[in-house]
Amino acid sequence: MTQFMLVRNRYCLAPLERCLLEKCKKLCGNRIYHGNVEKSNGNRLSAKRQTLSRTVLRERIIRDIRLTKERMEEVIERENIWTIPNFLCIGRILTSPYLGYLIVSQDYQVALWLLGIAGVTDLADGWIARTWASQASKLGSFLDPIADKLLIGTLFLSLTWTGLIPAQLTYLVVARDILLVIGASFIRYRSLPMPRTLVKYFDPTYASVQLAPTLASKLNTGVQLCLVGSTLAAPVFHFVDHPLLQGLCYLTAVTTLAGGLSYLVSKDTYKFLRKRKINPPSSPS
């Protein structure tokens, strides 16, 4: 009887054990699955946090770069352009077309007087800028040669139009001046800090480079002014086609070539202006 009951209980326990084993497997499987899901969700959250932190860091770096650029632009030297020498240079620039009109109209006497006034203002603006430091400006280093080149170019073209100066010499002078203007414009562009914009380029108070003419160029300017002044005075005082004028034309051609080459050889024709250093704020003691 006892043996029969044991055998019967053994057969009854087998389905129960299998049921318990299946429940244990399901329970363990669910725990493993939920553990994997929690681990996957944690990886996703950490990836999102890393992406967010990288984005924030990138935005912060970009903002710091922009603030640094704006701060550097604020310390670039800005100068006073409303000086007497600059006004004299602008006056020569504005009167050059009218002077050419007088020559083409063969009103040589008035044109000669106006050229004399322009020459006096050319000497005056240099003397004023050297004597009083407050009247010197970096803009003047651009305006003065531009005014001289425009005046001389206008005189050469108008005197060639009236047949008083050979056309070949005028072509040489004008071509050299155009190349110098292109070179000065390129230097101005290179001197600007990044980002280079048209507003900075055409802002006269934005001093970024200073030009310095060579000795050969100064000598050439003096020879050219002597030629155009003598040629303009020739119809007034009746010495047109004088041999001295012809010799002065050859001398002008030589000095024009020498002055142009001097800008290529010399290393001191321009100077980039350094930015003022920003002093860090002193820590409180």
UniProtKB/TrEMBL annotation:
It comes from the Eukaryota. Gene3D superfamilies: 1.20.120.1760. It is a multi-pass membrane protein. One of its GO terms (cellular component) is mitochondrial inner membrane. It is an enzyme of class 2 (transferase). The chain crosses the membrane at residues 150-167, 244-266. Its EC number is 2.7.8.41. Keywords: Lipid biosynthesis, Lipid metabolism, Membrane, Mitochondrion, Mitochondrion inner membrane, Phospholipid biosynthesis, Phospholipid metabolism, Transferase, Transmembrane, Transmembrane helix. Its main location: mitochondrion. It catalyses: a CDP-1,2-diacyl-sn-glycerol + a 1,2-diacyl-sn-glycero-3-phospho-(1'-sn-glycerol) = a cardiolipin + CMP + H(+). InterPro entries: CDP-alcohol_PTase-I, CDP-OH_P_trans, CDP-OH_PTrfase_TM_dom. It is found in: Mitochondrion inner membrane. One of its GO terms (biological process) is cardiolipin biosynthetic process. GO terms for molecular function: cardiolipin synthase (CMP-forming). PANTHER family: CARDIOLIPIN SYNTHASE (CMP-FORMING), CDP-DIACYLGLYCEROL--GLYCEROL-3-PHOSPHATE 3-PHOSPHATIDYLTRANSFERASE-RELATED. Belongs to the CDP-alcohol phosphatidyltransferase class-I family. This is cardiolipin synthase (CMP-forming). The gene is LOC107223540.
